[in-house]
Amino acid sequence: MILAAAGAHAAETSPGTAFRGALGSAVYDVPGLPTSWSEADHENIRWKADLAVPGWASPVTWKDKVIATGADSEHRYAWCFAEADGKRVWATEVPAVEGATEGYATDTMDPEWDARMYAASTPVTDGRRVYVLFSNGQLAALELADGKIAWNIPLGDTSPNTYGLSGSLRLHDGKLIVVFQGDKKSIAGYDAESGKPLWTAQRPSSTWASAALVKTSKGRDRLVLLGDPDLTAWDPATGKQAWSIDILSGKPDYNVGPSPVFDGKSIYVNCQGSGIYAVDPDTGAKRWGVEELPVGYGFADGVSMVAGGGRVYQYYGYVLSCLDAVTGKVLREREMDDAASYASPFLNGRHLYLVSVNGVRVVDADPGKGLSAIGTGSLDGRIEASPTVAGDAIFIRTDKALYCIGK
Fold it and tell me: Which pLDDT tens digit goes with each residue over 241-263?
């Protein structure tokens, strides 16, 4: 994998293969991506595929295939669909393995929310296999061609974690990167070919965030993850810790959900009850912090930010906030007509896509133009999984279906 050079951020070069792209930036440059769609009016909806059970994982893609996952307390599924027309190519139920959490149960006091937590981690694919993680603590590799299980292993006891394993999978040079939050707290590298563990780093910080891949000014790859209270960087090849900064201490104790993002210059993190911060990828030193927003309701508890074009964007509650990436100055805030869901936004060229409770709002990313409205997208169903961009289309998983959106 080749990471974007520091100081020269480019759009994702491997979109669709992992959560918010291979690097986790959610920054794309796709000409002709639709800025409005409607299921009711049959506008820009290429196809829809029903899904048997819910999940919060985003779909992933490779060339002509789209993969989605879903689960409940007893069953774990992966489905593959043809990118062209949405016809099902294969469906695989991943059987239980000894050592995983039998009868795992979520408990957020919201049954509809709980139902999606069993498949909260977004898979990752290398084009040969797709790797899936479920909240009962099972990690498996499926052949992309036919869905056959190559290996299926337990990671440990997840019963202490009532919010599910929501940290999404990453790949780095043949290593599968896994964030585990259960009876132990760790980040680990597994051999993608065999499923054998290669390294494990224990974490003191609890987290439900996903790791991001960044590159230092000297060209060193780093894996960064936000926890409570630490933002930590590791060498993805060895698991050796590069640095750690206690960035959330002294703030209210909230569960950490938002994932770090990187624009080629700085790492940006946000967390409810804390703030928005920029961090040096080489040293972990804090460059700036914003702990109060002029209009905003505060800082997100689950929605990740997006950074590009010299700006950082957070969508939380009803408010979109745009900050200068170099100084942290708040450039513009705009109150939207609908509240953000738990799905994270993405940036495509000059257009910012925001996922709300009842659909997608597309705005001009230029704060000088007031973050003005461009278009809206509406589907039947609630969107909590972050959209996936690949080719010339957007793939969105709702609570009941998978959609391909394109002109």
Answer: 999 999 987 776 678 999 999 99
Its pTM stands at 0.95
Cβ within 8 Å of residue 8, ≥6 positions away: 264
**For 258-284, what is the mean pLDDT?**
96
Residue 2 CB partners (closer than 8 Å, separation 6+): 13
What is the DSSP secondary-structure string of 255-320?
---PPPEE-SS-EEEEETTTEEEEE-TTT--EEEEE---SS-----SS---EEETTEEEEEETTEE
Residue type at 146? D
Give phi and psi for 324, each to the nearest 5.
Answer: -70, 130
Tell me the C-alpha to C-alpha distance, in Å, between residue 322 and each of 85, 148, 276. Answer: 37, 45, 11
Q: What is the largest CA-CA distance in the chain?
A: 57
Length of the chain: 407
In this predicted model, which residue has the larger pLDDT, 163 or 77? 77
**In this structure, what token pair is assigned to residue 134?**
């479920």
**Amino acid at the residue 251:** K
- Pairing type for strands 346-348 and 27-28 reads parallel
Reading the block at residue 82, the tokens are: 């043809």
Per DSSP (E only), the strands in 137-258 are 138-143, 149-154, 170-172, 175-181, 185-191, 197-202, 212-215, 221-226, 230-234, 241-246
d(CA 22, CA 391): 14
- Say whether the peptide bond before residue 229 is cis (omega within 30 degrees of 0): yes
CATH number assigned to the domain with residue range 27-405, chosen from the 4 options 3.40.50.1820, 3.30.1330.10, 2.130.10.10, 3.40.50.300: 2.130.10.10
The Cα 248–Cα 276 span in angstroms is 10
Comparing 162 with 43, the larger pLDDT belongs to 43
pLDDT class of 156 with cuts at 50, 70, 90: very high
- 360's tokens: 């997608």
Rounded Cα distance, 17 and 31, in Å:
19
pLDDT band at 10 (very low <50, low <70, confident <90, very high): low
DSSP state string for 42-55 = TBSEEEEEE-SS--
pLDDT in tens, 287-338: 999 999 998 779 999 999 999 999 999 999 999 999 999 999 999 999 999 9
